[in-house]
Amino acid sequence: MKYKKNARKRDVLCIITFSVILFVHIFYHEKCTRRLQQYEIRFHQIVEEHQNRQLQQKQLFKEKSRTSKITAEIQITSQTEYNITHNRKVEQLPHLVLGILSLTEDPVRRTAVRATWISTLIRLKHQIPFRITYKFLLDKPTNDSLNENNVYKDILYLNVTHHGYAYKYGEKVYKWYKYVHENYPDAVLGARIDDDVFLCVPQMLNRLNELKSPILYYGWKHGKGNKPHRDCSIDEMFVVLGRDLIKRIADRHYCGSFTCTNDGDLVERNYGSTSLSVWLSIYKDVYIHADNNRMIFLAEERLREIF
Fold first, then answer.
1. CATH code assigned to 81-306
2. Would you say 256 and 168 are in contact if contact means Cβ atoms under 8 Å apart?
3. Which residues make Cβ contacts (< 8 Å) with residue 303, sequence separation at least 6?
4. If you ran DSSP here, which 8-state letter would residue 102 be given?
């Protein structure tokens, strides 16, 4: 009888022990299963993140390759200006320097210019008759424009003392041509163009090649006559000067006041075209050439009439 009671106790203990072991096994199995599921989810997340990083790196590599390809077509000289036509014997071509006046806070236009007629300059580098250097002309540096210039290396800061729309643009004209004279003494022509002007590359450059002269004063002409003066000027949207005229402007002193009295001072007239025409009016040998019939010029008041 005592033996049977002890046997029943052992059976009960065995059942309890087995149940505890089974419970522990099930508990840890479920816990391990959940942990494995978590590891599996995390593993897939890591794989997905890795794939996304690889995709981003591939896209970045493609973008860098595209940029490098474009940059390879444009030679950056020791002065970090862009010099188009580097695959040709550039020393045999006449040098044309372009200054594109642009608002510091308007990178959209600069992007449009680079993507359109500047891109055409590059594409037609084996056909154009000039060695081209271009610069975007900005009043002063900003963080955004400095970052932009780090990418394109095609911005020049004029650091003018006067800012604002149509206010003392003569200073910008003077500083640009002085820069051309000091930095590109081999330039046969120096141009100043607005960033909202579209240049028909082959036609315009072939035309300038026909007309190039040390005393050339070229563009869209306002007024009548063959001599520059206050009422006969080339519009500043696109004006081209020959080497000798550039030197004459650069060698004179700029005066930002209307009351300048020194003979030979470059007196500011607010508008770049009027200022330049007055400055050139003291010379009798200026070759002024208007191509109004070859250009489409829509002033703001004319745009209102058309649209």
1. 3.90.550
2. yes
3. none
4. -
